Amino acid sequence: MENHVLKVKVFRFDPTRDAEPHYDTYEVSLDEQETIMGLLKHIVEHQDPSLAFRESCRIGNCLICTVKVNGRKVLSCRETLKDVASDELVLEPAAEGQVIRDLVCDL
């Protein structure tokens, strides 16, 4: 299995600190079988511990981890980098509700 170097642009917004939403860009190298959730965890563990996202069941039942990847809603615990098939990703909140912080929205 081959590692891919990805450019990942992530929606960021903390209403307690930010006047407007913005995007932060990260470069990561991960196996193509890694999930979007794994990618987010990698960013938190190795590059930016302040990134906020939701996770719960990790098996695709609860739907709480839904995010937009390149404009398409996906379950981050199920969608793999191979499924996305792109070297550049844009990750955004999927819910139409108010953004609480980063990829976390009011449910």
Topology of this protein?
Blueprint: E1 3-12, E2 22-31, H1 36-46, E3 66-69, E4 72-75, H2 81-84, E5 88-93, E6 99-101, E7 104-105
Parallel strand pairs: 1-5
Antiparallel strand pairs: 1-2, 3-4, 3-5, 6-7
Describe the structure.
The protein has 107 residues and is mainly beta. It has a single domain, classed as Beta-grasp domain (Ubiquitin-like (UB roll), Roll). It is 14% helix and 36% strand. The protein has two helices and seven strands; from the N terminus they run ββαββαβββ. It has helices at 36-46, 81-84, and strands at 3-12, 22-31, 66-69, 72-75, 88-93, 99-101, 104-105. It has a five-stranded mixed beta sheet with strand order 2-1-5-3-4, with helices on one face. It has a two-stranded antiparallel ribbon with strand order 6-7. It is globular and about 40 Å long. 21% of the residues are buried.
